[in-house]
Amino acid sequence: MKIISNLCCLREIFFIQIYAVRNFVKKKSYRGIKMSEMRIRPRQVLILIIVFLVVLLMVHRNCKSTYVTGPEYLQAMYAKQQNEELPKIYAITPTYARPQQKAELTRLSHIFILVPNLHWIIVEDSNNSTQLVRNLLEKSGLTQRSSMLHIKTPAAFKLQNKDPNWIKPRGVEQRNLALNWLRTNVDPDKHSIVYFMDDDNAYSAELFVEMSKTKTGRVSVWPVGLVGGLMVEKPILNTDQTQVIGFNSAWRPERPFPIDMAAFAISIDLLFKFPQAIFSYEVQRGYQETEILRHLTTRQQLQPLANQCRDVLVWHTRTEKTKLTAEEALNKQGKRSDDGVEV
User: Fold this and answer.
1) What stretches in the chain show pLDDT beneath 70?
2) Are 256 and 182 in contact (CB under 8 A)?
3) Is 107 labeled as ligand-binding?
4) Which domains does the chain show, CATH number per domain?
5) 297 is in an annotated binding site
6) Residue 317 labelled as part of a binding site
7) Which one from 289, 327, 328, 342 is the annotated catalytic residue?
8) Where does Mn(2+) bind (predicted)?
9) Which tens digits make up the pLDDT trace of 267-317?
10) 311 annotated among ligand-binding-site residues
11) Is 254 among the residues known to form the active site?
């Protein structure tokens, strides 16, 4: 609305100046001077041009501005983004076809719509990028702030229908492809941040405000709620709250980095400095985080964020597997409830 208002002001000022010049010309003509002999004063033309440029600049600035009425931390983030003070965050999301996939990605897309410095790298577990994901990005207005990748998980490491989700490592191929894309397409000299953002977790927008504070050459950490059999898994800090000295993990606490994938972010320069930092199938259960972090940092070098690791801004939620017994009965009759509909 402010842009429209400024355009209207620009039009009115323009016509007022034209009207003033025309009146000046008319007055002179009434005094016996021919119209063909009239010349508009250079000073008036200069004033008209200056006014035009000033209002045009106001319109341009308003076009770049985004007006936020949400919490203060989000308003501050938009102000920094406008001044180009925010590092870009590359959020990597492995995903695969399932009944609740679109619902999960739609929920996640709302974070990207809110947070201006996020770039979404969606990696599908398939031989091709799907129309479902492409449609979602287009409808969310995120086409220019996303990258679609795809790679199929080898059959030997693919979960079967009745397998528990922990029996085989998931997202290894997809995350590694995204890391390769980053190392190929991102400028290592420009500070940016990498985050592994699974599609079944719940995220506060404030998490990305904190994540933006990740320093060059550091891995930042924070608590994660509802994970590892605890209400919260969190780093333990020293007495002055500046250094990680341990973790409160209950499950496999002997791991070098006993934290969840949602608990850390990486400064992009580290991925170029340590190209061997990738995920692997050849690790014990629960060691994927350790597998990549062991190349990049030590416990003592971790950067604690989120109010000295006291705020929980991400939760390891999991969507219940959808029960589709009635749908399966329809399928046996050669029918579908979603025929011609994208769910």
Assistant:
1) 1-41, 44, 58-68
2) no
3) no
4) 73-221+260-309 (3.90.550.10)
5) no
6) yes
7) 289
8) 200
9) 999 999 999 999 999 999 999 999 999 999 999 999 999 999 999 999 999
10) no
11) no
